[in-house]
Amino acid sequence: MAEHNPYVDDLSRGIIRENPVFRLLLGMCPLLGVTAYFINGLGMGLATTAVVVASNVVIASLKNYIPTQVRIPCFIVVIATFVTMVEMVLQAFQPALYEALGVFVPLIVVNCVILGRAEAFASKKPVLRSLADGVGVGIGFTLALGILALVREVAGQGTIMGPDPESAILLFGEGFEPMGLFGQPPGAFIALGLLLGFANMLFKKLNI
Amino acid sequence: MHNILRLSVTLAAVAIISAALLTGMHNITEPVIREKEQREYLEALERFFPDINEYETREIEGDQFDLVYDQDGEKLGIMATVKTQGYEGTITYNLAVDTDTEIIGIRVISHSETPGIGDVITTDDFQEQFIGKSFEDPIQEGEDVDAVSGATMSTGSMINSIRRTVITIGENILDMERKAFALEGLADDVYRGSVEGTYGPLTVEVELSDGRIQNIEVIEHNETEAYFVDAYPEIPEKIIEEQSLEVDVQTGATLSAERIITAVINALEDAPESGSGGGDN
Asked: Could you tell me if residue B15 is inside a domain?
């Protein structure tokens, strides 16, 4: 069975069993902040994935050279470096997304999913397994952001692929009055609560 | 001792490598970002001024103003790049006006207003009401342009900023003079004027004698009390002291303060000339 392969195990753990959002409730700040539109949620998820994968690999390969007393500052510098790089790339090549995500891009530095993986996994395990772990956690986080953003955009705006009017698809026709609450931060809490409830129900049924 | 040295060297090494990587990345992305911004700006310039040939940049109070010329060196108008404080952050926009300060177009470059509420400032419906307005127009909320209900902070701050920008362009670039409100020659009386606020009307009574404003009283208002106390009685006092309706408005209470000023102007606009109404006894 594939489950005995440690790489597959590392990869899948972050997606379902230890999904940072549905199971660990980590990284709630960007989760609630940028999920008004599907594109923004997905973009944020991918940006975070890039950072967690890169920082996991670098930290795993440096772990023998970094003294334990200064490991946290070193991790933070590594993470902040990648976040700033992602920020620059977004600003240059995805300006619309960069504008939409705003302050939440630099805030990826303090996303506890990333430092959590660095401290709990990458600083103890080999490089390739850390890579698999980073990819898994990234996918899990992106998945959660994507689902929540999709729910919020459909309920709160009545569109998919907004806010750019060129790509936005109106789901319910012109006369539809969307539930504006779901576009707002309180709506994010409500949607997240409902989603967590469903996720828990599903996990229980599937016995994960 | 050896240990401390090792810790410092490790941290320093990590920081130096990080700085080097970021510098490299910055050098790659910076020109792309600049070029993109510049290209979008030029496209907007061409959209608002189809006959543009060249432009000359001037800076006034931190905002950028580009004077646009056509092929014969004839001035076509001005494109301003302005920053203003919105509800949740800075709004940056372009305002294009012709040589009579008549507004040609507005383009919001960046903002962080609430999605689905404050972002109406980017819609044509909101922006089109400014087209054709100029230096001579009040450009006041509730007068000739409308704020959007539910988004009064975002739209109100855009309206105020656009008005200030048009005045700056008129006075500082095109050397126009704003018609000062002449108090002299108005008949002595108590005048009443009102203006529509966010939650209802604001009415003032202005007592005028010897061509001077003697007293201003707000007799009715529906402003938010917390903001209103910053504007009243300070603004009426300033008007009386300076005998002018062009008083400086403090930030924080701009909406209430500007409503009081507008109400006073509305009150005095209907005032008859002294002598014409038999006021000389």
From this structure: no
A125, A116, A153, A150: which is closest to A27 by C-alpha? A116
CA dist A47 → A3, A142, B29, B42, B48 (Å): 28, 9, 16, 30, 36
* Residue numbers of B between 239 and 268 with CB closer than 8 Å to A: none
The answer to whether residue B90 neighbours chain A at the CB level (below 8 Å) is no
pTM of the model: 0.68
Is there a single domain that holds both residue B139 and residue B238? no
Position B89 in a domain? yes
Domain of B247, CATH number, reads: 3.90.1010.20
Total domains, chain B: 2
Q: What long-range pairs does B63-67 form, CB within 8 A, spacing at least 24?
A: B63/B165, B63/B168, B65/B168, B65/B169, B65/B173, B67/B173
In terms of CA atoms, which chain B residue is nearest residue A36?
Answer: B115
In this structure, the answer to whether residues B137 and B220 fall within a common structural domain is no
With cut-offs at 50, 70 and 90, classify the pLDDT of residue B278: very low
Tell me, yes or no, whether B201 and B122 share the same domain: no
pLDDT value at residue B145: 86
Q: Do A36 and B110 touch (CB under 8 A)?
A: no
Q: Please judge whether A88 and B25 are an interchain contact, meaning their C-beta atoms are less than 8 angstroms apart.
A: yes
Put simply, the answer to whether A183 touches B115 (Cβ < 8 Å) is yes
pLDDT tens-digit series, residues B47-100: 999 988 888 888 888 888 999 998 888 889 999 999 998 888 889 999 999 988
B39 touches chain A (CB under 8 A): no
Please say if the pLDDT value at position B41 is more than 80: yes
Q: Domain span at residue B204? A: 189-269
Nearest to A88 among B10, B29, B114 (CB): B29
ipTM over 0.90: no
Total residue count of chain A as it appears in this document:
208
| Same domain? B194 vs B235 | yes
